[in-house]
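Action item from last meeting closed. Structure (430 res):
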């Protein structure tokens, strides 16, 4: 689904939430929009570090915000830089991110480099007094993520991650319904992301293979877990309002046997304290089922990506069809069967209802970036947004470790922070 620009007024109207209190209780990070009027004449001077596909995508949204001025671009790959310059000809160009951080006009940086480079860039940016928006996953290891989070806290700088669902109207409205008990007790969450393609990009020469296709190599990426799972694992914790305590899983290269090092087929089970489970599955050799988060309660199911919900009890069939069904049942009831009666349960034929009354038009990216800009201008970190980004990355990386080690892993105590059902240990030095 192609994202579309959505303004705050439309956003709040679509949610159908009465009163700011109710809205902020569900999504406290939306407090970032409370001082919008006061910042109408101010600007955020932004630098883009990493101008590849993701960086270019985020630039296109940032440029639609009149409060954003992109003053610097940084990349070592010239074709990506040239494409970015087509959008912002006046921006200064760098190949060394450290030079960007020396630029006094830069208020904030947007980091969209390969995963293995995130940590040092983000830490250096905080030390240079810059606010940071970092694409997921925020770190290459759990230890890196922890260092980033602690540095954010110690410097007091604004820190956002690429978790756009936090600002997606259908997800916020869905969470209101879930937490209100509309779908009964939530006992299972099933998430998946299926694609059909080799995940490769065209390479002009063989010496650029790892630079361009970094997502395929363990030196730079953790593959499907860090590139895709971040979004969906964050949704599961948001719905249950708690964090998993352990994970098990298996991964393999089953189809794209082309020299890549990351799995093309993964499956993880995350376990919560009460025994509830959340699954994540991904393959890139079949796209039939696409992308979805299915949250299942005793009274109904919600599919957030589709923006639809389904109640367990389907309205009765039309009269004629009901009569036919009753006749068929009487016929079979008159026949003698050995043993216990059995009837297979098939998928619900209910077409469901749209959460917002219509098919979703936005995935929250524009509002996420707008919120970051407002936070930079006001110099106020919204509540819980850094923590949500931290744990989304940590759960992905823990899942990757479980795949690699082929065993059940508990969430390490040393990386817990005070959030939801997790409690931090003694403060540690960065």
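Sequence:
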């Amino acid at each position: 689904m192609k994202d579309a620009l959505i303004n705050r007024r439309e956003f709040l109207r679509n949610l159908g939430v009465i009163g700011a209190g109710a809205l902020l209780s569900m999504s406290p990070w939306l407090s970032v929009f409370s001082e919008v009027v006061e910042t109408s004449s101010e600007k955020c001077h932004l630098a883009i570090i990493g101008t590849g596909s993701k960086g270019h995508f985020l630039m296109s949204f940032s440029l639609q915000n009149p409060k954003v001025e992109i003053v610097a671009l940084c990349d070592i790959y010239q074709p990506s830089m040239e494409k970015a310059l087509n959008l912002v000809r006046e921006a200064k160009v760098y190949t060394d991110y450290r030079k960007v951080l020396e630029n006094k006009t830069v208020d904030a940086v947007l980091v969209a480099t390969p995963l293995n480079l995130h940590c040092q860039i983000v830490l250096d940016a905080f030390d240079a007094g810059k606010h940071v928006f970092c694409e997921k996953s925020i770190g290459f290891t759990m230890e890196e993520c922890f260092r980033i989070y602690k540095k954010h806290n110690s410097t007091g700088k604004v820190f956002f991650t690429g978790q756009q669902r936090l600002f997606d109207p259908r997800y916020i409205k869905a969470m209101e319904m879930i937490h209100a008990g509309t779908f009964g007790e939530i006992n299972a969450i099933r998430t998946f992301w299926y694609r059909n393609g080799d995940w490769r990009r065209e390479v002009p020469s063989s010496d650029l293979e790892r630079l361009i296709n970094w997502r395929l190599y363990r030196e730079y990426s953790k593959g499907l877990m860090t590139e895709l799972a971040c979004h969906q694992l964050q949704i599961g914790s948001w719905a249950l309002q708690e964090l998993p305590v352990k994970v098990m899983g298996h991964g393999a290269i089953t189809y794209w046997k082309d020299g890549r090092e990351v799995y093309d087929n993964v499956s993880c089970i995350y376990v919560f304290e009460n025994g509830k489970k959340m699954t994540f599955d991904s393959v890139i050799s079949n796209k039939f089922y696409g992308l979805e988060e299915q949250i299942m309660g005793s009274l109904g199911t919600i599919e957030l990506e589709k923006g639809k919900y389904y109640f367990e009890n389907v309205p009765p069939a039309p009269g004629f069809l009901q009569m036919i069904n009753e006749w068929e049942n009487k016929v079979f009831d008159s026949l003698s069967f050995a043993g216990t009666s059995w009837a297979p349960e098939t998928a619900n034929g209910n077409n469901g209802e749209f959460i917002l009354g219509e098919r979703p038009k936005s995935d929250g990216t524009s509002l996420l970036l707008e919120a970051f800009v407002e936070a930079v201008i006001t110099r106020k970190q919204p509540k819980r947004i850094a923590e949500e980004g931290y744990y989304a990355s940590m759960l992905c990386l823990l899942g990757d470790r479980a795949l690699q080690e082929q065993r059940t892993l508990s969430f390490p105590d040393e990386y817990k922070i005070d959030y939801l059902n997790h409690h931090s240990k003694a403060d540690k030095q960065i």
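Note appended to the action item: Residues 331-340 have pLDDT under 50 and may be disordered.
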